[in-house]
């Protein structure tokens, strides 16, 4: 191990250790939990009050196309009648796999070749991965493939038996639009809670050193390393926050598969390293890889409540943390402040 690597590890662990004392703030963890409950509860009340108005128009569209989707599902259901396990495994592995590798195919091409320039000009950390180190990428891909095929595949089997114990995840009727939308909202809230606290847990010095440090080898992440992690971390911090919602709600395969696709594409964007026009901002999680002890969550709700985004909110990255609605890179429209003498 080089002196530079050892020093980097000490800074990371020290940063995590030093920040943990500051992050709790007045009132401690319990005070933050109460605040989180208030915010999440208010959000649920808001959805209950205004959900019907928001979804009425969408339901009209869904109603017009609902028979089409139901007929497609019925044909698939009949074709796999008596083989629910195969249908479930197909739906929760094939569609998410296509979503993950489809979205990463273009990103990998850009990372490896440095072209086209239309995309590379939106790179967040301009001096990194230009192009990506081939040896480092090969090592990451081996781990990613293992996690995706072996670990996620095994988790899918466990999830199938849990959901079958609760009900029938491959039932003949698709969920209504309203119910599917409410489920997706519930999944998102649960993911934010479980990912935030499990992620912070893996930043404790002892766990960080043995498990989470692997993921943070990429201080400037790329899309595919979103699931580059130790298998234990992949189960606890990547998979459990995503699969818990469908298991607890006894969701239909269609909603579960859609949610897995959304989660994988979302984490790919968060790690991609490019702040592209009209896509969600990845600045929040990119800053986490850069600074290690900031921005632990998905949406930033719990980070705000726990104060673990304080440095982020004082940075240029926070100013750029918005939906880019033009074709001018935010590194150009909101440039870094030059140091004196430059």
Automatic annotation (TrEMBL):
Protein name: Fatty acid hydroxylase domain-containing protein
Stretches with biased composition (Low complexity): 1-23
Ranges where the Fatty acid hydroxylase domain occurs: 185-308
Endpoints of the signal sequence: none
GO cellular component term, pick one: membrane
Organism: Oreochromis aureus (Israeli tilapia)
Residues forming coiled coils: none
GO molecular function: iron ion binding; oxidoreductase activity
Transmembrane segments: 36-58, 98-119, 140-162, 177-197
Renumbered residue ranges of the record's region Disordered: 1-26
An example Gene Ontology biological process: lipid biosynthetic process
Subcellular location: Membrane
Keywords: Membrane, Transmembrane, Transmembrane helix
